[in-house]
Structures are given as structure tokens and as C-alpha cells.
Amino acid sequence: MSSFLSVRDLVVHFPTVDGVVKATENLSYELDRGQTLGIVGESGSGKSVSSSAILGLHRGTNAEVSGEIMLDGVDLLKVNDETIRRKRGREVAMIFQDPLSAMHPYYTVGNQISEAYRVHNNVSRKQARARTVEMLDRVGIPQPDRRVDDYPHQFSGGMRQRAMIAMALINDPGLLIADEPTTALDVTVQAQILDLLQDLQREFNSAIIIITHDLGVVAEMADDVLVMYAGRAVEYGPTKEILVHPEMPYTWGLLSSVPDVVGDTDAKLIPIRGNPPSLLTPPAGCAFHPRCDHTDKVPGRLCFTTLPELTPARAGGDHTKRCHLVNPDEVYAKEVLPEIAPEMSEEDA
Amino acid sequence: MFAYAVRRVFAGIIMLTAMSMVTFVMFFASPIDPAQFACGKNCSLEQRAQVRKGLGYDQPVWKQWKSFAVGVFKGRDYPEDKSLRESAPQLVAHCAAPCLGYSRVNIATVTEEFKDRIPVSSSLAVMAFLMWIAGGIALGAIAAITKGSIIDRGVVGTALVFYAFPTFFVGLFLLKFLAIKWQIFPVPNYISIADGGIGSWLTNLVLPGLTLALFYMAGYVRMTRAFVLESMGEDYLRTAKAKGLAPRKILFKHTMRAALTPLVTMAGLDFAGLLGGAVITETVFNYNGLGKLAVDSVQTYDLPTIVGLVLLLGAFVILANIIVDILYAFIDPRVRVG
Questions:
Q1: Which domains does chain A carry?
Q2: pTM of the model
């Protein structure tokens, strides 16, 4: 059965004067309508770049994009510019991190949202305005008929992001890509926005890709999670599986670094040592090896020489990981879990 | 908004008053004795004193200024000195309110001097303005869109060349080749619309207008290019693209709108400055505008004309500033108060 969205071996390279920046390498994932995929990774891991490729935002730049992106049976990388332009905002929409800079300061919010509607629908200004007010109401903006004539700087941060969501969903897209939608907002507003997205997903049956560096958001919203590192998928599978049985040291590092607010609040924070790798000259072999604490458990010097393939996890199913460790679940249970959640390590997780 | 404009106009009037005072002080602070200058080379002491009295320069500076200021509202009679007026009533000149002064050099009130010259300078300013705005913005936008290409580099390079050439050179060059040698245009001579109709008014303005325009255009090309490029890097353009907007719509509705705002400000101020006359261009093409008047009045130590010009040009610039600020509030909603 083919999925609504199917990305296969997506490659995005940026040729620069210093060399080729390999922002995305052989990325593959699938997503159905009504489902949410969380893409997690550090800054520079290729999360945004790979998702921008779905909308064709790299066209016209000097980026080299190859692979396959099938959306509802159409390969988005093979269509011409006019076709992809018609799909943007209608079949697939994107919302960005900072809603203030994402909107034009000189036009009213209503104008910009109506614009999104009128690009794809041949309606009068009045009809577009009515639809805009309806969407603003749907995303929870009070007094939408008055706020529709306000300018972006007159909205609060949370309301601006709601307005952006209204703008993205006004044409009922099948796929919504949310690039760090809550990073610029405070935590209480963040919860509201996530609730809103989930409501709208239920209502419109849209597929959602949520890009974030926050595992809490992933745990809350995502059905599947894709962990990216140095432009590649390093762990991919159902969220429940990955959060409980993670099998890649980078994922362990991400989970360990989440501060514990209920347990021992005096405990030290556990960061992942080192820095994100250069995408211009990534490390040989496994890109994570300079920061990995478990390379000694792998025979030979495999981690330093050979890039691991995506292989199924121990528990099987749809869970895959890119690592040379042969018994990650044991390593996890013995070394990592006691650090993250001491009270859980006794249970059979 | 209205209250804001009124406040600004009021402040402008105060500024103009201060400017007139400063001009008076500066005039008399110069090392050259204006009475001596007016009198000429072979001037005896008595003649000089007489000239001084006739011109009113024997009064203290503040008193002269006061007469001037009062005269602006009530009108004045010249010469100042009552005894001189009575002795030669046929030489008395009456300057009706608002009286900006009477120029002994040109034997006319300052207002009369302005009357014929203002249209000349204004026409020149308008012509040049239209040319440089149209050319500058269009070329600047093209350069920004084709950034890095040979078109971009060509446009920017040419702009730099024209910016570097002095206006007298460009003016003479155009005059020599386009008007005299190849006779594409008539030798420019200012003809008002009333005299020769719009057609000849326009044709006679092309060359001097172009001279000025080329200079300003160069700056505007560079600035438009910079503003458009800056605008192109903004996040809201990415949103516009992600919505599926056509490239041309993105360019005009989103990119250019943002880039034009700072340009409007600068254009307004440049235009206002130009209304006061373009000295070199007017001299090259022998146009009797305010610029030429300014140079002449300084060279002949013609205080009343100098003061009149300072106030007129000052008023233009102050007014332009106010208009531009108010305009900005209409363009950029973030600037509006309340």
C-alpha cells in the first residue's frame, strides 16, 4: 500500500566555493494522512533543508536535489516549476519558526491570509475575506472580524503563529510541514499551538511533519519519529518504540540531555559532548563517532571507517537505526537508562 | 496625525526664524565690508558712509533683522532711513507684505526675483526627479534580480561612472554632442508652458534634466539594488513562495513594496533640495533659476536676496521632511502612533 507521502533517497547538496555541503543524504521516510512525523535533530542536521525540498523551495537556487518525493502519487522532484508552484499552499503547506518575520509587515494579516486563498481559488475579495475570518476563528483568534484588519506587529506571538497556521491550512492541504512552530513561543502557548495542530489534523485529516529539536513536542504529537544527524536518518520508527527502546547512541544522547524536572533536580545536565559535524567535510565512517561513547564496543574500527546502513532494530517492526552496535538494547539498559531514569532501570522496559 | 503635522510646522517656523537670524549674523561676520563692496573700487569715505546709510547697514545687526522680520508681515519701504526717503521720494521702493527684502543689485524685490526663477528651478527639479526615479529604481531592481550577472555588474559600473563625472562635464558633454553637434535636441533655453506650450517646455528640459538625473540616478541605482537585495533575503518572501505566489507577484507586491519605503524618504528630501536650484546645471545651460541667483547674490553681497533664498530653500527642505515623515506613517504601519 503506498503512503500519501513517500520520500526516497532524497539528496540535497549545496555547491559552494569551499566545496559541496551535503545537507541531506539518502533520506527516506513515509507518512500517511492523519499521521504525524516528528523530525528531530540539532541545528544543521538537515531537518529544514530536506523538508523545504518537498515544497520545491530549492528550485532556482544552486542546490542539487535528487531522489524521489511522491506526494499522492506525483513525484514532486520531476514536475515543472509551474506545477509545483500550484501545489504550494494548496496540497502541501509550510509554517515557519518565527511568525513575526514570516509575515510582511506592511500588509494586514487578513490581506496575507486572503492572498493565500486567492492564489489557488478564483473568488472575490469579499469571499476570500469571509473565508479568512472563518479560518481565524477556527484557529482560536478572538474577534476575528476585527483582527483580520490588524497588522502582524499588532498580534501577540502565539496569535501570530495561529494566524500562520490559518494561512497554511486555508486551502485544506493534505500535508502540513511545521518547521519548529513553537520554538519562538513560551511553553504555555506552545501547548495551545500543539493542541490546535492536533485538532486541525483530526478535522482535516492532514499529514503533519513537525520539525523540532524538542523531544517533548515529539512525544506529545508524533506518531513516528525520524532522528537526523549530519543529513542522514540515524533512527526511524514509531515514537513509542523509539522513546522506550532507542537503539542509537545519538538518540540516547538526546534523551539523556532532557532536563529532569521531577526527579533529582540537583542532578547535573548531561549534554552530548562535542559539536555538530561539518556538512562540508563530515567525519569518515559513522558521522557520530567523534561524539559517541560506545565506539569501543564495536569490533575492529568499524565506526571510524564504515558508514552503517539503516538496519532493523532488535524489536523489529518498522523501527530502523543506523549504528554498528550489535546489542544496543543491552547497552541501553545497562549504561544509559540508569542515567536517564534510575527508577525505570529495574523494570523490564 | 493632524496634531503631529501642526507641531512639526510650528517647529519648522521656529527653525526658519533661527535660520534667518544666523544668516544676518553670518553676513556681517564676514571680513568684507558690504558697504565698501557695494560702493565699488573708487569709493571715498563719505560715499561709503552714504552707501552704508542707504542700504541700512549702519544699523545694529539685530535692528536690521527686526526690520526684516517686521517687514515680512507688514511690508516695507526702501531706503530704510527716513531722511533719505524724504529727500528723494521718487526713488522709494515699496515692498508689499510678505516682504522678503529688496535687492539693490537687481533693483527688484526679492519676491519679484523669485517669481520668474522658481518655475525654472521647479521644472528642472521635476524633470530630473521623474527621470532619475524611473531610471534608478528600474535599473536598480534589475541589477538586484540579476545579481552577480554581467547585467548587474554593467549597471553598477555605469552608475559609478556617472556618479564620478562632475555635472558640468556631463552637462557640457550633452550640450556639445546632443544639442550642437548632432542636433538631436534644440539648444536648451527655458521656455515656460505659458509661452511655448508643453511640447517645447519638455524638449528644452530634457538635456539639463538628464544632466542632473544621471548624477542622482547613479546613487539611486545603487541604493535600490541594496534595498531590493535586502528585501529578498527576508523571511516573508519565503512564506510568499511557500504559499504558491507567482514570482512576479512576489516581486512587486512583496519585495518592491518593502524596498521602496526607504527610497521614498530619500527621494523626497533630494527633490526638495533640488527645488532650490541646481547651480552648475543652470549655469551650463544658462537657465535663470534659483541656483544661478544664489551664486550671483553671494558674489555681489546682496544680503536681501541671500536671506530670501536661505528662507525659501529652508522652507522647502523643512516641508519636505514633514511630508516624508507623514508619508512614512502611511506606508509603514509599524510607525503609526496608536
A1: 5-222 (3.40.50.300), 243-348 (no CATH)
A2: 0.80
